[in-house]
Specification:
The protein contains no helices and eleven strands. The chain has about 130 residues and is mainly β.
């Protein structure tokens, strides 16, 4: 099983930016599709962005399109999430997730991901 460790969260003002990182170990990173999810207090964990094994395909939840960018560096076993123009409604714990797959596909469903990081807090003040 792959282990995931997120970093890069913090407190920013509305309109600011952050770059989240998720470092993977214990698995063959290139075999995993990756996803970023977030969970606000009292709410369910929801999909934010996903990237295929090769990085050729990406997918975004509608509210973050044009503001967030997911990318990966397979040589460094790391996936990134660039968060621009952050808004108070983006405040949440952000989780990285990994799913081993033989296809170059992306899924949005949390239950399809067996591997999760511990999360990193993003707080956006108005």
């Amino acid at each position: 099983q792959v282990q995931l460790v997120e970093s890069g969260g913090g407190l920013v003002q509305a309109g600011g930016s952050l770059r989240l990182s998720c470092a993977a170990s214990g698995g063959i990173f290139v075999l995993y599709a990756m996803g970023w999810f977030r969970q606000a207090p009292g709410k369910e964990r929801t999909f934010v962005a996903g990237i295929s094994r090769s990085g050729a395909n990406t997918d975004y939840e509608d509210s973050v399109k044009g503001r967030f960018t997911i990318s990966r560096d397979n040589a460094k076993n790391t996936v990134f999430l660039q968060l621009n123009n952050l808004q108070p409604e983006d405040t949440a714990v952000y989780y990285c997730a990994a799913r081993a797959t033989i296809a170059n596909t992306i899924t949005r469903q949390p239950h399809d991901f067996p591997n999760w990081g511990q999360g990193t807090q993003v707080t956006v003040s108005s």
